[in-house]
Amino acid sequence: MDDIRIVANLAVSVAARADQITIPAAFALAPNYPNPFSPRGSLGPGGRHTTIRFALPAIAQIDIAIYDLLGRRVATLLNEKRPAGVHLVRWEAQDEAGQQVAAGIYFYRLQATLADGRRAFQSVRKMVVQ
């Protein structure tokens, strides 16, 4: 029997079209913006807020939480499964009870857990509430 050898070249291109989703190559947690931010005053119906951007290369259970300087969990922004892609979440400087937090330094942490239960990623960043 003769050996059959098949040689294939595969080229993958990523188009920058609005109707396509770009899958990130790695997990990432970006700096929040604006930082520092002031929740007082108003910039429309939602008031002022900060935005946190994160990237997922695979479907993962996401936990994004805000902590104070003493390490106490102040607020939970997300605790749910999210698909691969780039995501945004807003924080309006409110605690779990919906009360405005005091001015100061806070930390936000992203934990991503894969479907098999392995923690795939964890990152912490600092933000300032004025």
Task: Assign the CATH architecture.
Answer: Sandwich
Named CATH topology = Immunoglobulin-like
Count of strand segments: 7
Fraction of residues in helix: under 10%
Average pLDDT value? 85
Number of domains: 1
Oligomer: single chain
Strand content: 35-45%
**End-to-end span in angstroms?**
77 Å
Question: What does it look like?
Answer:
It is a single chain. The protein is an all-beta fold and 130 residues long. The protein has a single domain (28-129), classed as Immunoglobulin-like (Sandwich), CATH 2.60.40.4070. The chain is built from no helices and seven strands. The strands form two sheets. A four-stranded antiparallel beta sheet has the order 4-3-6-7, with no helix packed on it. The chain has a three-stranded antiparallel beta sheet with strand order 1-2-5, with no helix packed on it. The chain is globular, with a radius of gyration of 20 Å.
